Amino acid sequence: MSTSNLDTGAGGGLGVGGGASLQASGTPNPANVTQSPAPSAGAADYLAAMQKLMPRGRAWPRSPTAIMTLVLAALAITFARVDMAAAALMADVFPATSTGMLPEWEESLGLPDPCLGESPTLQARRAQVVQRLVSTGGQSIPYFLELAASLGYAITITEYSGANSHHWQVNCPQVQTIYFRVGQSAVGEPLVSGSAGVLECLFNELKPAHTTVSFVYG
Predict the structure, then answer these.
(1) What one-character-per-residue DSSP string does 78-100 give?
(2) Residues 133, 205: one domain?
(3) Number of domains in the chain
(4) Which of 75, 128, 135, 180 is deepest in the core (most CB within 10 A)?
(5) Over the stretch 157-176, which tens digit does the pLDDT of each residue have?
(6) How far apart (Å, rounded) are the C-alpha atoms in residues 86 and 90?
(7) Same domain, yes or no, for 69 and 156?
């Protein structure tokens, strides 16, 4: 079995004879995308604002222990809660940082994908949503490199020549490790998880029908 390195360019194919080895371009992992929290007002801010709108006089006390103040403080808590939810929505509408709206993103994109397994992590689900949104489809080497990079894998692909021209090999230096991250993970997820099962599943699902693919790690 022999291989050779060829420059396939942007339109490099798979399973068409010849050999090729290309390095992923380093597309950033969507799971690492962070967003600055939107500004929000707290209960104390709303209490102060409502007190400033009150008329002056003995019937409108502003003492911390006054009934009027306690009533306004209770209302301020609700206003602050709504404010925080609105601020969180700024991050929730983006799939890379979404939590509450993530099921809606998944439903619109035909997810969750069986390749993710029975209990995917929050970060893995976000990465799948982003990958579906940015994917343009294809069966070329650059397409599969970009697909792997979008999932956090830096790989190379080698094609074989001769009798094995229908076969190609994915070279993965290391298995992706997903660490539990505050604000990026959900309660109950493991502190450390990692598997190349998603990568293998997707590649076998999307590979050209007339080809076979194998995976080498390390």
Answers:
(1) HHHHHHHHHHHHHHHTSTTT-ST
(2) yes
(3) 2
(4) 128
(5) 999 988 889 999 999 887 66
(6) 7
(7) no
